């Protein structure tokens, strides 16, 4: 079965809308906790459970019609709420941002979650930032619904009915999903308000905020730091939203960044990633491929040109290692290899892709080059280990794949003589995986770290034995991975505040991009707050 990425399902609006859970058994971060004990290289493989773990039925209610029935999902009378504790809903918070885990009646992996935004002023709310067509939340109960027509003309509709409020900031209930007037999925839900993790403060472990700089262009997505300047790129989520582009800050004084330049190009408002080599900044864009800017004057980037030439190419991410630039494109799906021995004159060496009969729409989302191998997060077909030594004959050496995978980001290093990859998907419940990739033909899962099942990892940076993760609503998380079989969270900063202007109420927002250049600071991008600079803990 084919499917689009979680991000594209939201950003391209080709799919219907986009919990409570305890943390795993690992201890909470504590500045006084000693670092993990060095690893001796031995490990025991663990079972792959996937991103979504079936926690069972969430509420004693039901949308009564059988699947495949022709009907209108937005019909409150079709919800059987007779066993519900409806009185508890009167005590639930009726404003804020809830992320919702859906559990189909079948018990199978759901096709997503539902982000609910209910404004504090009682105004119109959204479901994955699509307007609610029904919004009832009062002492009589909770009924929410929306309708959307995809770019392919499919009319989709979600309807949710509240059943109980076990806690003030948590609601359980039932849902139904219709496509072109046919009931195609139903089940129960567990919605948790996106406050900081249970019992957490704003920060811990010495990760302290040094400065915060608002970014006015679009939806901030990534940052690159060089020459005492931070280059923040932004995307345009929808055509009616502000265009993205490049925002440049002088960060010579990390406590007081200075805005130096704002750049956008007509007809190209989706700038998703940045990297630099010497005096050239490379930017991944949806309409222009890779754009080159001269940053010999770092506060005033000057346009050089875009590559490759020819038809427009949607490049999503970049990775630079030595004299090579790897560019990962979504449409058409391909990885491009450039020789950047002369940074201003990239030479395209090859375009290549990996396919699967099952997932024909899979594409490379990100990649990580390390010690002669290129590790590709190839979304649906998994995490690939390749040999790009000969750019004209890139060889697949192995892959790690599990049901409903959406491999999204990774970082790779050597620990006790073993090659270890830290990998994460991007979807509800995505979490940190630790993979032994020493033998690419026999990749083994040796550890994992989970947070809430309704949040998602976005990006990660490995510096020595510390792993920094931009974890959307969970903020910035720092792990001691000296023993990669037992990643230990040692610091965090909760960047996400539901009251920040610009919050959209869906799973893919919060801490999104990050760099740790080794200058004593951590540079993170939050999708609403902009550029955040922390001291390196």
UniProtKB/TrEMBL annotation:
It comes from the Bacteria. Residues 1-21 form the signal peptide. The keyword Transmembrane does not apply. Keywords: Signal. The keyword Hydrolase does not apply. This is Lipoprotein. The lineage of its organism: Bacteria, Pseudomonadati, Myxococcota, Myxococcia, Myxococcales.
């Amino acid at each position: 079965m084919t499917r689009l990425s979680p991000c594209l399902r939201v950003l391209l609006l080709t799919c219907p809308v986009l919990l409570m859970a305890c943390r795993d058994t690992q201890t909470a971060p504590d500045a006084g906790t000693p670092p993990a004990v060095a690893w001796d290289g031995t490990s025991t493989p663990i079972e792959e459970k996937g991103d979504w773990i079936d926690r069972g039925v969430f509420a004693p209610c039901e949308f009564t019609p059988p699947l495949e029935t022709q009907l209108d999902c937005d019909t409150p009378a079709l919800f059987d709420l007779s066993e519900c504790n409806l009185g508890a809903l009167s005590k639930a918070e009726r404003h804020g941002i809830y992320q919702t885990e859906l559990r189909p009646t079948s018990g199978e992996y759901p096709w997503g979650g539902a982000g609910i935004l209910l404004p504090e002023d009682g105004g119109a709310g959204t479901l994955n930032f699509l307007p609610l067509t029904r919004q009832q939340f009062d002492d009589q109960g909770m009924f929410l619904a929306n309708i959307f027509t995809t770019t392919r003309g499919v009319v989709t509709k979600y309807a949710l009915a509240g059943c109980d409020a076990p806690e003030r900031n948590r609601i359980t209930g039932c849902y139904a999903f219709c496509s072109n007037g046919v009931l195609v999925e139903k089940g129960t839900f567990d919605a948790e308000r996106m406050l900081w993790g249970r019992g957490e403060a704003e920060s811990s472990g010495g990760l302290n905020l040094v400065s915060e700089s608002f970014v006015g262009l679009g939806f901030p997505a990534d940052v690159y730091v060089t020459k005492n300047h931070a280059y923040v790129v932004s995307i345009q989520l929808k055509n009616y939203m502000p265009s993205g582009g490049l925002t440049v800050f002088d960060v010579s004084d990390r406590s007081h960044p200075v805005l130096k330049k704002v750049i956008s190009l007509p007809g190209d408002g989706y700038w998703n990633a940045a990297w630099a080599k010497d005096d050239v900044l490379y930017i991944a864009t949806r309409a222009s491929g890779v754009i080159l800017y001269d940053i010999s004057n770092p506060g005033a980037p000057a346009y050089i040109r875009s590559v490759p030439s020819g038809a427009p190419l949607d490049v999503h991410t970049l990775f630079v290692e030595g004299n090579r630039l790897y560019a990962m494109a979504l449409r058409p799906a391909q990885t491009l290899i450039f020789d950047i021995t002369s940074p201003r004159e990239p030479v395209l060496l090859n375009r290549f892709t990996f396919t699967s009969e099952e997932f024909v729409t899979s594409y490379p989302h990100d990649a990580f080059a390390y010690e002669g191998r290129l590790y590709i997060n190839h979304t649906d077909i998994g995490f690939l280990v390749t040999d790009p030594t000969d750019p004209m004959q890139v060889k697949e050496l192995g892959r790690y794949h599990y049901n409903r995978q959406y491999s999204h980001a990774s970082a790779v290093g050597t620990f006790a003589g073993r090659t270890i990859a830290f990998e994460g998907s991007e979807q509800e419940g995505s979490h940190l995986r630790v993979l032994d990739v020493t033998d690419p033909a026999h990749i083994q899962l040796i550890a994992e770290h989970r947070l809430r099942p309704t949040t998602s990892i976005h990006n990660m940076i490995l510096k020595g034995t510390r792993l920094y993760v931009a974890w959307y609503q969970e903020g910035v998380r720092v792990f001691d991975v000296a023993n990669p079989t037992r990643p230990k969270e040692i610091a965090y900063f909760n960047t996400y505040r539901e009251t920040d202007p610009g919050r959209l109420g869906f799973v893919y927002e919060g801490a999104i991009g990050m760099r740790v250049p080794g200058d004593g600071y951590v540079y993170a991008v939050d999708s609403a707050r902009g550029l955040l600079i922390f001291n390196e803990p």
